[in-house]
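Annotators were shown the component list below and the corresponding predicted structure, then asked to write short factual statements about the assembly.
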Amino acid sequence: MQTCQTNRSLRTHPCLAGLLLCLWTLSAPAENDAHVLTAGIEGSFVQTSTPLTSWLEGGLGKLRNDENTDGLSLYHSFMNYSGRLTPTLNVKATLIYNPEQSNGLDLSEAFLEFRPVPRTAWRARFRVGAFYPHITMENIDVAWTNPYTLSSSTINTWLAEEVRTIGLESRFGRNFGANGQHGLNVEGAIYWLNDPTGALLSAKGWSLHDRQTGITGELPLRFGTTFEPFKELDHRAGYYVGGEYRYGKRLTFRYHHYNNHGDPTQGPDWGDTWQTFFDAAGLQLSLPWDVGLISQWIDGRTIWQGFDAGFDAWSTLLTRPFGKHRVSIRYDDFYLDQALMGGGVQELDRGSAWTVAWLFHHSQKLRFALEWLEIESTRPQFVSAGFPATVAETQIIVSVRYLLSNQPN
Amino acid sequence: MVTMRRLSTASIAAIAAMVATPCVIAGELWQPARLTVEVTDRDGQPVGDVVIYATKNGADDDRQPHPATAIMDQIGTAFVPHILVIQVGSLVEFPNSDSISHHVYSFSEAKSLELPLYRGTTHPPLIFDVPGLVILGCNIHDEMLGYILVVDTPYFSQSNVNGQTELVGLAPGDYSIQVWTPRLRENSLPPELQISLIDAEERQMRVRFTEKLSPPHTSDRGGLSRPVY
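Structure shown to annotators:
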């Protein structure tokens, strides 16, 4: 297992604070839900079939695991805290477990949310801290997990790797039409500490897994180097704007434009400042026969010094519940290239993936899951490393998750 | 469009023998009338949860029953009932039978309210003393929507799944009949209808919406999972 070179004393402070907060709330009476603490303990058995070493070990593999790191693990476990400080002010924090790092426990999100009571048809919601932008349509379960599959789509995998809003977000929404059938939300955010966004994508291409980078975490690049994805070097704020339209509960369409406004001339290293901007859209539909459809799309560029990469990806998931069971199938398509000095592009990563998952909620606390996925990609780096130009990786995960809570049910 | 059919005098006489107890108004004996309503959309399909209410013109109805205490509950992250009709001056309880907290609010002209309904706590009932529509939301769960229609009459009802309902115990006299559903904008609702009822009359009324109704409010997400994050 690779260990990251970290400043241990600084890195563990947020973890210790998080643990202390969790222990304090567990001791609080649970007659009400002013402080909700949920711990998810998930044991998984992972089996991969791949000639590649995982990107987490500095290799070319797109999965979290490879044939050397297969087997049993607890790395999907988490602890989530939601607290109501006042009737309109909430706090939320999520601790995640990444055992391959020296600070195995880290915060994936920690933020305050202000929800003033509406005095008109418009609702205002504000978040300040570290949190995911509202881009994903799939990761809607506790601790930003996915209730449809275990592994996120390629787009959402990348968001979990190196995209986090560390700043302030404002959202305004209202319903209109008879019976409030139409819903509209518009939002904007200003943020910092996201300068290296795009560094990992450019280095390793797209991936498919469920790992979330903690806000004090580090990410590996090839040849043993690492970088911190959430840092500020150029003292320039980034922004995103977005909107959402809903029709009842059955149709949602979302769009975001994101620009971290990074200065690509800052910093000599690959993991320093990248100028990254993209457009992202998402569609969620209830189809007949109880089938759900979720589709996401992204298109953008990421630039550092003279390295100018274009990326795009899309995914479509179909899902259907059968009582306590749910079956989902997803197709991912992804692409990354680099603009060449004399014109034209060099393809760096082109591929697709299929994911099939069965989830069974035995009760509100106990969930069983089985997932199979195959990801196939074509990369010039494969050939350089002595592999065929196109490599397919497959993975099976069997997992059992148990939720502990300080709430009675 | 609203159409009405008057029963024959013979039918009225026959039914009069079986209707409720005779009543007294201003020293005169009278038998209460009944108004049966059928509601359909423009395709002829029955429409449920449509509110019908009858307001008596003039001030000669002494039989105003006392306003009751009604319940607007929160179950399964939804307001239950979705539409509650009450007489002006009634109390409404908000018990929150859910296992989670809610924060109910309304900024409607007829009643502005803010009710933190945290699990483990109770709140005394609120009085609704202004007629009009009160639209309810929850500040924790933005998808929740409910209505309280406050009317200035004791004669109100909602259509069932077959589009049928009735108003009973109506004293003879002139009435203004109004129809309300959240599935139509206010200016698309049928206009007020003036009717006169006589002793023990059995009147039938058909309401047929000519505008397209918006879909009923539902918590059903079909095949999609409910967001927890």
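Statements collected:
1. Confidence is low (pLDDT under 50) at residues 1-20 of chain B.
2. The radius of gyration of chain B is 20 Å.
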